[in-house]
Write a structure and sequence with these properties.
The structure is a homodimer of 420-residue chains. The longest helix of chain A is centred in the last third of the chain and has 28 residues. By secondary structure, chain A is of the alpha/beta class. The two termini of chain A are 51 Å apart.
C-alpha cells in the first residue's frame, strides 16, 4: 500500500519549525509495509488544501493529513475538507463534553463558540478521539482509500497515530503478514556495519529487508519480513537476526525497539546496580534521558550539574588544584567529578562530562567540541577525550551517547567478572 | 515572489532522515521576502520528478530542487530534468577537471565513467559550480521562472544556496514584500488569547495575518504582512504588535522569535542575576533546557538532580522530618529544595520540582501528574501544586514550562521593585 503525508501550516513553510512529524509517521508505517510516496507541506488556505488532497488521492491508498486543526485555525481546514468530501460539519457530543471538561480545568466559565467548534467533525467521518488535546482527529474512507486528519502538535499527532490510526490500518491489511525485528547497535557507523554483515545481507531471501536507521552514534537495524505465514516469517527472520547479532556482538546493545537509555535502565535494574551523573557541558541532558525512562527511580539516584568551578569543588569535591593546573575541561577533572558523584550519591556507577559545547569558549588547545568523559565503575574509572565538530546541540547529544556507551561497556566488562 | 522546494530521495520518505534542508532554505529566502508556498518530498523516479516539477511550475516563480544528484543516483534526475526542459546533457570540461582532481585525492587511479557523468549538465543550464563537492548545481530560467537543482548533502546545498543561488535571486526584480513579527506568550491558552484580542484581530487589514503557534504551555503569535512597500508593512505591523503586546502584557515574555529558555537566559544575563535548579521529577530537564542556550554559563551555576530522598537530604539539606511527615512530593519539600539549591549554588534564584511523572507511582492523594514546584527568589519563595494528566514525557515537559513561568513572573516582580 502507498501513502502520502500532507502537513498544513505556515510555520513549516517559513522555516520556523522543521517537519519532524512526517519522518516519525513514515517510520510507523514502514513496519506495516506501507510505503510513503510523497510528503507535501502546504499553507492553510482552502485552495492549497483541496489541491493537495486531490493530487494525493489520485496517487495514494492512504492520505494522512496533519496540522490545520486547533481552536483558532480549524475553520479553513475543516470547511475545506467537508466540501472536498461533499459533506457537512456536525457537532460531536462526546468530543464537546471532552473539550468542555478540558476548558473547565483552566478555571474560566462560559466556553466561547470558538472552542465549541473544536467539537465539529465531518458528518461522514469516524472520530479519532483525542485523549490528550482538544482537537479531535477524523478519518474518512472513500473509494477504498483511507484519509486521516490529525492535529499537528507532535504529541497529539503521535497519540492519535499510535492509538487510533495504526489499529485501523493494521486491520485493513489482512492477507499480508509483516514481521519486524530490531537490533540496536552503538559504536560503529552505518557503512562499517553494512560491510561486516555484507554476506549475511546478500544471502537474505527477497521478502526480508534490512534497513539501517542511524541516529548520532547509534544505528538501529530493522528486519522486515513480508509474507503469508507469520510463524514462518518469524522463524526465518529470527535466524538471520541471530547470525547478525553474533557477527556484531561487540556493538549490539539491545534486541528490541527500545532506546539506549531504556536498555541501560533495564540492565542496571536487573543487576541491582545504581547510577548517578556529574555533568558540566551536557548540563543535565544525560540525567534527563535516564529519568525520562519509566522505572528509572530504581536505578538512578541523582545528578550534580556543576556548571561553575565553584560547584565542581563544593558539590563534587574536585580538588581546586586540579582545576587550576589542568582546567575544568580535562581528564583529571572529569575523573574526580565521576568519583565524587559515586561518593555523594552512593552509587555503583557514575558518568561525568566536561567540555566546550560551543559556539564560543574554544581555544587553540581546547577547541569547541572537545569533551572529556569519565565513567567510574565498581572496580575502575575509564576516562576519554572526544573531539566533536558540530554545533552546540549536537555536541551535547554526541557527548551523552558517548558517555552512555562508555558506561555500557564498563558495566558489561564488570558484570562478566561477576558472572565468571 | 513565491517559491516551492522539492526534495528528491527515498531517505526522507521512509523516515530515515528528517528534512532539515527545506526549513534552512525557507529561512534564507525570508529576508529576500520570498514566500515558500509548498515543500514537496518525492522519490527519485522519472514520473515523480516530472510531475512535481510541472505542478510547482504552475504555482511558483522560483523552484528549488535538492537531492537526486550524486554518483550512484543522478542518472534519473538529470535525464528527467533534461527531458522536462527539452534539452540534452553535455559534459562540462571545468566541472570534469574539478571532479577528476577530487577523485585523485582518494588515491585511486582511472576514474570510472560513473564519476565522469557527474560533470554532465543540462545544455541550457547555468552551472552552479560546487567548490565543496563533486555534484554541480544547475539553474535554468523559463518563462520568467527560475529553477535551481542542487545536491541534497546539507553542507553542499548550503554552499550553493549561499554563494550561487541567493546572489541571483537578489538581483531579480521583486514586487511582493513580506514582513514577519513575533510575540511569545506563556500562561494562557490559544483560545483565551484569541478572545482577549478578538477586536484587534478583527480590525486588522486583510494583508496582515495572525497565526497562533502553540507548544505545551506556550503560544507564539506570528504576524505576517504581505504587500508592495516594506517600510509601510513594517510600520503597520509593529503598530498592531504594540496593541496586542499591551493587551496581553501579563502573558508576553518575548518580542522575538526565540525560545522561552533563551528569553530567561538573556533577561538574567542583562540583570546580572544567577540561577540554579533542584530537580526531582523533571530529572535535569529544566537544567538541560537552560544549558542548551549558548551563553547560559553567565547565568546558570548548576543543578542538583535529587531523585532519591537521601540525595535530597545530603545535597540540598531538606529536613528528614519534612520528608517523613509531608513526603517527597509536597510543597514543603520543594520549598526546602529550592532554598537549598540557592544556598549551595550561591544563586539569586532557584527552581525546584518534585512530582509523580508516571506512569506508575501514583496514589489516591498523590495521583500521577501531581507536581509541586517552588521558585526561590531574592526576597520570597513561591510554591504551587499542579495536576497534569498526561504521559511521563509530557508531564515532565509541562512541569518545566510551569517552573520557568513561575521563575519568569517572580523575576519580573522583584525586578520591578528594584526599578522603583
Amino acid at each position: 500500500m502507498k501513502a502520502e503525508i500532507i502537513t498544513i501550516g505556515d510555520e513549516i513553510l517559513n522555516g520556523q519549525i522543521v517537519d519532524t512529524n512526517s519522518a516519525w509517521i513514515a517510520q510507523q508505517l514502514a513496519p506495516l509495509h506501507i510505503r510513503v510516496l510523497q510528503i507535501t507541506s502546504i499553507a492553510d488556505t482552502a485552495e492549497a488544501i483541496s489541491q493537495a488532497l486531490s493530487e494525493a488521492e489520485t496517487r495514494a491508498d492512504i492520505v494522512l493529513v496533519t496540522g490545520g486543526l486547533g481552536p483558532t485555525k480549524d475553520d479553513v481546514t475543516k470547511t475545506t475538507v467537508a466540501r472536498y468530501f461533499d459533506t457537512t460539519l456536525v457537532r460531536d457530543p462526546k468530543v464537546l463534553a471532552h473539550v468542555e471538561s478540558l476548558f473547565q480545568r483552566t478555571g474560566y466559565k462560559d466556553m466561547p463558540e470558538i472552542n465549541k467548534q473544536q467539537a465539529d467533525v465531518l458528518a461522514n467521518a469516524r472520530v479519532l478521539f483525542n485523549d490528550v488535546g482538544t482537537a479531535p482527529g477524523m478519518s474518512v474512507e472513500r473509494g477504498g482509500k483511507y484519509f486521516a486528519f490529525l492535529p499537528g502538535v507532535p504529541f497529539e499527532m503521535k497519540f492519535l497515530i499510535t492509538n487510533r490510526v495504526l489499529p485501523i490500518l493494521r486491520s485493513r491489511e489482512q492477507e499480508t503478514r509483516v514481521y519486524n525485528a530490531y537490533l540496536l547497535t552503538v559504536g560503529l557507523g552505518e557503512s562499517h556495519l553494512a560491510r561486516q554483515i555484507a554476506d549475511i545481507e546478500e544471502a537474505m531471501p527477497a521478502h526480508i529487508k534490512l534497513a539501517y536507521l542511524p541516529k548520532l552514534g547509534l544505528v538501529r537495524l530493522r528486519f522486515t519480513a513480508v509474507g503469508a505465514n507469520l510463524s514462518q516469517l518469524t522463524e526465518e527472520t529470527e535466524q538471520i537476526v541471530e547470525q547478525v547479532k553474533m557477527r556484531l556482538a561487540a556493538y549490539v546493545v539491545a534486541q528490541e525497539d527500545i532506546s539506549f537509555e531504556e536498555t541501560i535502565v533495564r540492565l542496571f535494574a536487573h543487576a541491582g546496580q545504581t547510577l548517578s551523573t556529574a555533568e558540566s557541558c551536557t548540563g543535565g541532558y544525560i540525567s534527563s534521558l535516564i529519568t525520562g525512562v519509566s522505572g528509572a527511580s530504581a536505578v538512578f539516584q541523582g545528578a550534580a550539574v556543576t556548571y561553575s568551578n565553584e560547584a565542581k569543588v563544593n558539590l563534587l569535591h574536585v580538588a581546586p588544584h586540579t582545576l587550576e593546573t589542568e582546567g575544568a575541561v580535562s581528564e583529571q577533572t572529569v575523573q574526580e567529578m565521576a568519583e565524587g558523584a559515586k561518593r555523594i550519591f552512593h552509587t555503583d556507577y557514575a558518568i561525568a562530562t566536561s567540555g566546550i559545547a560551543g559556539p564560543t569558549g574554544g581555544t587553540d588547545t581546547k577547541p569547541v567540541g572537545m569533551v572529556c568523559i569519565a565513567v567510574a565503575g565498581r572496580f575502575e574509572t575509564l576516562v576519554k577525550t572526544y573531539y566533536f565538530k558540530n554545533d552546540r546541540t549536537i555536541n551535547i547529544e554526541r557527548s551523552a551517547v558517548a558517555g552512555l556507551t562508555m558506561l555500557y561497556n564498563l558495566f558489561k566488562k564488570e558484570y562478566m567478572l561477576d558472572v565468571e
